[in-house]
Amino acid sequence: MSEYDPQALQAKWQPRWEEMDPFRASEDAADPRERRYLLDMFPYPSGDLHMGHGEVFALADVIARYWFQRGYNVLHPIGWDSFGLPAENAAIKHDAHPAEWTYRNIETQATSFRRYGISFDWSRRLHTSDAEYFHWNQWLFNRFFERGLAYRKGGLVNWCPKDQTVLANEQVVAGKCERCGADVIRRELTQWYFKITDYAQRLLDDMDQLEGGWPERVMTMQRNWIGRSEGADVLFEIEGRDEPVHVFTTRPDTLFGATFFVVAVDAALADEIVTDEHRPAFEAYRAEVAKLSDIERLSTEKEKTGVFLGRYAINPVNGERIPVWAADYVLSDYGHGAIMAVPAHDQRDLDFARKFGLPVRVVVHTGMADPGETGVATSGDGEMVNSGPLDGLRKAEAIAKIIEVLEVERKGRGAVNFRLRDWLLSRQRYWGTPIPIIHCPDCGEVPVPDDQLPVTLPDLRGEALAPKGVSPLASATDWVNVECPKCAGPARRDTDTMDTFVDSSWYFLRYCSPGHTDGPFDVEQVRKWGPIDQYVGGVEHAVLHLLYSRFFTKVLYDMGMVGFTEPFLRLLNQGQVINGGKAMSKSLGNGVDLGRQIDDFGVDAVRLTMVFAGPPEDDIDWADVSPAASQKFLARALRVMSEVASEPGVSFDGGDVELRKVTHHTIDEVTKLIESQRFNVAVARLMELTSAARKAIDSGPGAADPAVREAAEALAVMLSLVAPYTAEEGWERLGHVGGTVAKAGWPAADPALLVRDLVTCVVQVAGKVRDRLEVSPEIGEDELQALALASEKVRAHLQGEPRRVIVRAPKLVNIVP
Ligand code: ANZ
Ligand code: ZN
């Protein structure tokens, strides 16, 4: 095997690694090694692995393999997120069972992963569609139910007419179904929810723990999704209605500027208070709005629409009568579904007022032109006017003052509002976790007792799974009709299944003890392994999956089952693999197949190309990279390792000092680069080391010099993070038999060999050279300035403090006396 033949290397080493099984995490509680938990977002088995998988798993494996080399006890598990719609759609199409498609794809991906050489602990493999996994989704559901965190309510929900199922708000993107792109409509349905809103404040507060560990943009997306607003709840009387109505406002200081009142057109309140005279127009308008998505409704570009309801509200601070309108720009499920409109200081209110000829009253003097004339609302700070007791105050003072007044008069209070909604959990599809509830006419919602879990799926396939607006499970009458666990009377199983985001909200805990049978996970094992040190995956999960996992972790913390409140301490979002400047797609025909790339260039060259392409967060344009060049480099590296002519175990001390310095500088730098996740630069350093060793062999001290062996061994170990096959082969050719380079141990840089030769620094005073200092090329500016000012020769030409010191480290210090 003199030429570089990647397929031969793979055929040789893959079976040996499988025999060695070197990446198992130790279960031994007495294992003294420091532990590390690395997690890749688990794949969905949609077919074989694609280029995106190739990238993310190659990147994460750099970290995992580095930790193995450092001697940590590493947990690096793999599993499959194997419930979900595509399997079901494939089953309908091919008259099959979703499990067939699912498990076939899982096997395909598993085979590809093994070839790809990722350092997984295969013994912990899990599939969320296995009953031994989803059993615990149900068990957890029961615990949430007991705590009042799982509940059913009726209401308007997002409905995908194509997939025939409800969608969480999070799964609606710009008014369309995230999965199939169909226009989402609103439907009135009774559904299961998780009460994530109870955790809104903690989901925000605990983000302090993630500062510096998570990408800033993901932090922002999480914060925006939670959407905390501070302000006040204000009570308005509606003439002729007994109960006052709440509004939420972030600007209670503008209360004296409220000139009308708006109720969401689809809120129950609008229907209740509209007068008979105005009802026909109201109902017609409501029917129009029902066709719009929230995004469209809230768009500031859209022309404002609305109808007068024939009623008046009373401003609680000045007793003023203001007309009540219904409009679509107020949403029924935010705040209280009604607002006080302050057109002078809120643009949407102003647009509405101008459209319908409603008055505009300025109450904050900001120095800007009159909004009633310009059509531009002013939202900045200023001096309060036309506002009774608030006149003369600034915004912040006015907010505090009005809240105080409202609280004293019991007409309102300070309030916080969140944009976050409860998590809509139930789906009307088959291939998911059955919700473990039995509906009894006498006892109501009765959880399936823990000792009767798991509730498995009835055996349905093909046409029986076709969407019909109710869950396919409803047609399995034998399965549906059961005895009530409480009263033994006739009852029915809940026929909905859980959102698959439930599965991925705690899988990382299951990996700590995948065979556990007494609960979702072994609390002791999670105490040992958790939280996850490094999570790696796509930014498309920046909101949902991460938010849900964080929520689950907090609930489990409250249950005393985990000892931490945040599951993922660090997060790395890799970029995408694109081609020719565009995302790969069937329609563009610019797809690149991972399997083909591996066939053509070998696993290592593909992995190296992924890692070398740029910073891990950046997109990789496959049109701009060269797996062929990667392959050439690997061939060069292997040749260097093959040509070493000294024996293993030789002392490096007598080796060529120049090459030794290069080797130790490389070790030092690569260590820092890996720690700071600048993997591409680390690869560049390994390329330089390879060239230095090549030169030493060809035109330096020669292949038998111990320094060449030292360089080649360091290269093999460091290269094993990126190109495991080449490194393994090189390690063997270096004379190391048995074992694997993956566990050879990370090389240590010898500080004595890191000292660079000194450079001469010229010190000038008033433009004349007064001294020359021998300094390290890495010297800092402050240190160099201090050295220069301490020089006797320099001091002789200075009286007192110099006026200026200009430092150009390491070569020049210029002192202006
Ligand atoms: C009066 C006011 C005056 C407002 C002003 C703003 C500026 P965020 O930051 O999103 O929480 N609002 C309240 N409930 C609403 C609903 N269901 N649909 C649409 N808009 C609603 O915004 C809160 C502000 O959005 C509230 O403060 C309210 O308008 C509006 F100069 O009240 B404000
Ligand atoms: Zn009953």
UniProtKB/TrEMBL annotation:
Residues 420-621 form the Aminoacyl-tRNA synthetase class Ia domain. Pfam families: Anticodon_1, tRNA-synt_1, tRNA-synt_1_2, tRNA-synt_1g. It catalyses: tRNA(Leu) + L-leucine + ATP = L-leucyl-tRNA(Leu) + AMP + diphosphate. Its EC number is 6.1.1.4. It comes from the Bacteria. Residues 42-183 form the Methionyl/Leucyl tRNA synthetase domain. Residues 223-406 form the Leucyl-tRNA synthetase editing domain. HAMAP family: Leu_tRNA_synth_B (MF_00049_B). This is Leucine--tRNA ligase. It comes from Nonomuraea corallina. The lineage of its organism: Bacteria, Bacillati, Actinomycetota, Actinomycetes, Streptosporangiales. The gene is leuS.
